Each structure stands twice: as C-alpha cells, then as structure tokens.
Amino acid sequence: MAGRKATITDIAARAGVSKATVSRVLTGNAVVTPEKRDAVLTAMADLSYRPNLMAKGLAWGRTFTVGVLTPDLASPLYGLIMAGVEAELHGLGYQALFASGAFETETERRAIEHLVGRQADALIVLGGRLPGPDLVAAAGDLPLVTVLRGAPGQPAITLDNHHGARVATEHLITLGHRDIVHICGEAGQQDTEERLRGYRDAMTAAGLTPVAVPGGYHEDDGQRAVHLVAGNGIRCTAVVAANDQVAMGARLALAEHGSRVPEDVSLVGFDDLPSVRYAVPPLTTVRQPAREMGQAAARAVLGLLDGAEPDLPAFAAELVVRGSTAPPRA
User: Fold this and answer.
1) Is residue 222 over pLDDT 70?
2) Distances (CA, A) of 149 to 38, 78, 129, 206
3) Which stretches make up the HTH lacI-type domain (predicted)?
4) Secondary structure class of 53 (helix, strand, coil)
5) Does residue 165 share a domain with residue 282?
6) Mean pLDDT of 250-269
7) From the centroid of its chain, how far is CA 76?
8) Which domain holds residue 73?
9) Is the whole-model pTM more than 0.70?
10) Helix or strand or coil: residue 108?
C-alpha cells in the first residue's frame, strides 16, 4: 500500500466483504450487519482510508456542512455556543462553517448569503440584529435554527432572559438594596430588551424606581456606564450588568471611583462565563448553559435535515450567588 491511497477495493479485500457492502457502510443508506460494519471500519482504520467527501456529498445531495452565523467571533459566550455546535456536528459527521455578523444588519445579511453560496446544508444563527423576516428570506429554503433569538416560523433555542434578570434584581432587593442600576446591553438586541424588562418588573413590583443606563456587551461598555452613573451623581448601591463582560468593566470603574465590591456596591452579571468564578471577588451572575445550547441547536438542525420534528429543550436561567453581592452598608 505504500505510495498510493487505499481504495474501496482494498477495504473490501481487507474486511472480507464485497465492495457493495463497503459502499453501504460509507453512505449509510442501507442496513449492514454490525459484524460487517465493524470489519469495514477496522479495515478503514488499518489502511488509513479517508472517504472522498465530495463524492459522498454528490451521492447524498449534501455537503455535510452547516453554516453558523455569530454576532462576534471573539465573544466568550458565543464562543461557548459555537464550541457546542461544532462538537455535536463533528460527532455526527458534519463540519461547521463560521461567519460573523459584527452586530450589523447588512453584514449579517451578506454573511448569510456567503454561507448559502458555500452550499451549506443548513443554518444556525446566534443572536444578531437582522429582523426575523429578513433572516428567513435570506436563508431561503435551507433548514434554519436560531439561538438566543427568534425568527418567524423557525425553531429556536432560547433562554428566559426576562426571568434571569428579574431573579438577579430580586436577589439584590432581598439583600436590602433599593438603589439598583441596570447597565443595558447592546441596543436592538432581543435579549437586551428582555433583560431590561425583567429588571424593571422586579423594581416596580418592589415599589422601587428603575434606573437604566446605556451600555453594550463588552468590558469598556460597563466601564463607561459606571463613569456615567458617577458623573451624574446617581445614587447606586448595586448594579445589574447586561452580561459578565460588562460586569468586569463596571468592576474596574467602581475601583477607579474608590468603591469596593461588595462592601460599597454589589455587582451581578449574566452568562456565568468560566472566568468570572476566578474574579476578585467571584462574580454573582445568572448562568445560561451556552455549550449545551449549542449542542441542542446542532441536533435540532440535523433533525430538520432528516425531516424530523426538532427537539427543542427548555433551558432555564439560574442565579449563581458568589462573593460580589452583600447587604448594603447601614
């Protein structure tokens, strides 16, 4: 075999089966006994055989790729979701094609057109700003699953952001805080609106006045928001940040203004990124199971490709209490 690539004929001879049996194992479109299948797979491993994916795609009418659109390739949260998507797809014989929309509607539209042009078999879209009807139109006939956003008539992997922000705010109220500021997320994002609504509902239910300031989803957004609060003399003993990255920026700005967490100001994030448990102090936050959500999206979109009703598990937002929250000083 040295000097040339193994062929189906070589695999058949090694496994002691017909070439037709090898073909059935490779395409998966006919029943093969477990014994013969194992023999073929063992022979493929022994001979370092790699199937021709282009030929397999022509036989199946697929490219065995799934396009994945994310607002931000560098985002820790979306990175965890993408890792879940990639791991699940790889385990089922598919590859992910990633593209970034950069939180801009036209960039998102062009990215989807690119993924469609690359002949992806299906699409998974994470967050983003492109309106739902436009997203569906851009996807065309391709199966589509969204994560942390919705689109008309399309299956979605979602989290109850309203509930998450509400329980985070209620945690602070229970501790005795009354002057609680919310740093908002990226304008125009569905999760931003839901978290703001959850914060407001908790505040008004307690008879408190909501105070929300513009923010975003990055560390510098949190830093600027705290400078804005301090510069305008807004009384604040606790902060509900749009996400963990914003909370880390807010933490730095609070220190710059001489405020300690949690002695002077309590701080809550959202996402439960792996790094925040190592912050000083460890960050109280709302956990969303990002990797698991990515895995669920991959299973759902492959189910659509096979004509099955997608399984859409319900994911709950869970408050994780750590050292960054405490009762306000008397």
Assistant:
1) yes
2) 42, 13, 9, 29
3) 6-60
4) helix
5) yes
6) 98
7) 9
8) 63-159+290-315
9) yes
10) helix
